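Researcher: Structure prediction, please.
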Amino acid sequence: MTTLKERFFELPNYIVADAGYGGEENYQAVLEDHERTPLITYAMYHKEQKKKFKRNPFFPANWPYQELKDTFLCPDGRKMIFRNYSIRTDKYGFKRYLKRYECEDCSNCPLRSKCTKAKSDKNREIQKNMNWEYFKATIQQLLSEEETGKLYRQRKIDVELAFGHLKACLGFTRFFVRGKQQTHNEIGFALMAVNLRKYRLSKLENKKDSSILRFLGLTS
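Model: Predicted structure follows.
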């Protein structure tokens, strides 16, 4: 995105991509660094929209949250109490700020075997990344709205068809060379073929439109 902005054109208001790019670091970059709106699902997005997921009481995502007390309620109604903060740094140096919660007492819980695999003398623990939860809520809201939801669905039409033609019609399902420069050249030829086809089709469409206009007497 930075390269596009610096070398080619101003970024559009909406940044659309598939779920492979739906991560905390990318959401933060789009929203804060580039001040744009991300229309990017995350890996669990579609699964979380299903009734089976939403009705499962053992998923922490479905547990009631008491904001004033900063506690969650487990399926048995017991409090998950905040214990401490922690920071997790990935291999790229991005930091995630986590909050650890622990059940006040899991002993004698009738749902224990379904809720946790922790040892009998340990309570159930969960970790929450509030920054990530905020981004998820933002994406869910955006994709539920008519205008932005339509823009995201358009991605499949614009992008997936090109990949399908590349593989099914041109037979490009694997690289036949090795090395960065060689594969760069090979995919370049394949994409050139796709673009030439699109260019030819656009010319045919323009010619067809001109013929219709001449037939209607709207042009010479």
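Model: The CA atoms of residues 89 and 95 lie 4 Å apart.
Researcher: Thanks, that helps.
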